[in-house]
Design goal:
Blueprint lengths: L1 E5 L3 H13 L3 E5 L2 H10 L4 E5 L7 H10 L7 E6 L4 H10 L3 E4 L4 H29 L1
Parallel strand pairs: 1-2, 1-3, 3-4, 4-5
């Protein structure tokens, strides 16, 4: 599965990229939300794993922009945070995130969330396909 990872922390970015590639995923990286948005405008990625706090554009704004799109396939958004804050969780869910994980990441939790993401993305594609058939 194609996954876009956005994080301004180089070490976290490299670790996450390595974990996802080891699990067989195709990974694209972005160092901030603006760079991630640019990537998504050019090429769809079924899953975005994004840090909440980044320069240029944070993960919350990135998520809001993704949800505001009216075209293109569904992107499943997993937000990451190093803070134990109900406020960040609330902001993420209000922005349209599908899931939220605490840093440092537990690889087993990440992989479990990605299995859920794969199922949701497949269902979204099926609904889009059926909708397109009904319209024609």
């Amino acid at each position: 599965m194609k996954i876009l990872v956005a994080d301004d922390d180089g070490a976290s970015l490299l670790l996450l990229k390595a974990q996802l590639r080891k699990a067989g995923h195709e990974v694209t990286v972005a160092r901030d939300g603006q760079q991630a948005w640019t990537v998504l405008e050019k090429d769809s990625h079924p899953v975005l794993v994004s840090d909440c706090m980044m320069p240029e554009m944070d993960g919350f704004e990135l998520c809001r922009r993704i949800r505001a799109r009216t075209t293109g396939p569904y992107t499943y958004v997993i937000l990451l945070t190093a803070h134990e804050s109900r406020e960040e969780y609330r902001k993420g869910m209000e922005a349209g995130a599908d899931d939220f994980l605490q840093k440092p990441l537990d690889p087993d939790q990440l992989y479990a969330r990605l299995r859920i993401a794969q199922r949701i993305v497949a269902l979204e594609r099926e609904v889009a396909s059926l909708t397109a058939k009904v319209k024609t």
